[in-house]
Amino acid sequence: MNAILDLGAQFSWFGCDNFTSSTYTPIPCGSRKCEIARGVGCQQHLRTCGASAFNPFQGILVSKGFAEDTLYANNQPVVKDYTFSCMESRFMEGLASGTNGILGLARTEISFHKQVVGKFKLPDKFSLCFPSSGHGKLSIGDPSLSTILGVSLSATPLIVNPVSTAPSYSVGDPSDEYFIDVKSIKVAGEPRDKISTINNYTSVHNSIYKPLTRAFVKAAAAIKIKSVAAVAPFRACFTSESISRTPAGPYVPTIDLVLPGNEVYWRINGGNAMFEVDRKTVCLGIVDGGSNPRTSIVIGAHQLQEKLLEFDLVSNQLKFFSSSLLIQGKSCSRL
Questions:
Q1: Which CATH superfamily is domain 154-329 in?
Q2: Phi and psi torsions of 35, nearest 5°
Q3: What is the CATH number of domain 2-122?
Q4: What's the average model confidence in pLDDT over 308-314?
Q5: Are 112 and 119 in contact (CB under 8 A)?
Q6: Which domain of life is it from (predicted)?
Q7: Domain map of the chain by residue range?
Q8: Percent of the chain surpassing pLDDT 90
């Protein structure tokens, strides 16, 4: 089956409507494994450790149970006793066509990468590389994908948000998601920044979005890029014919998220910055998150394309290629 990678999902769940397996084993209530999974209550009729499976595309929580089974992946070692939950197809609306579940990659003991590094005694780290087209790569442990690509990475601390951003949590729970500390965006703000594979585009607080788009439109006009009417959900849109092309995509002003350290920044440019609405129109691929978002900035999936990321939980750092790999003639699709 194909599954969606979710950096914010605490555990994996899959569609099980027609699922049969001789090695499937429910996790009992009150067991040590249920405690590790942070089970929610108990499914009394089955005496199974309770799981709150969340579909982020529908925004719904479904009361299910945790189980274990053997996980097989193409040309990879078998993962025995893999903890996950099931989900009925009626609660799976919104998932990309051809996918049948979510692979959780959050900071929990039963996320996909955490179970793999534990069972195979690997360093607690994983790398992601999403291509602009074709197939990308998820790598767990060593070697880093940066070694394979032959590129050097910048690094910034991973921040633990003391307030949970999960759909269901207890007061005092920290967040299981991945945050970095953004000092500025050239034009405004000192927010903390979440990285998401679920949001299509980067979303920023309204107080940041307005000056950011104004500055971008002004800088675009300075290099003779012509503005056109906005196309929802975007506000800064331009004529394609007024923009020249580079190996990394459209030649447009760069946006830098300035991070702690000396000359450490996350650069959004070219294809990462722009979304092609049609042949005649492209827009800045950043959206207004409103005046009361849970997180001031969420870096979305479009801005993760051709951007090698390594989540190093040994050193508690995010290591990343600061610009687009396409600038160096490389691509996530060629890993």
A1: Acid Proteases (2.40.70.10)
A2: -65, -45
A3: 2.40.70.10
A4: 96
A5: no
A6: Eukaryota
A7: 2-122, 154-329
A8: 81
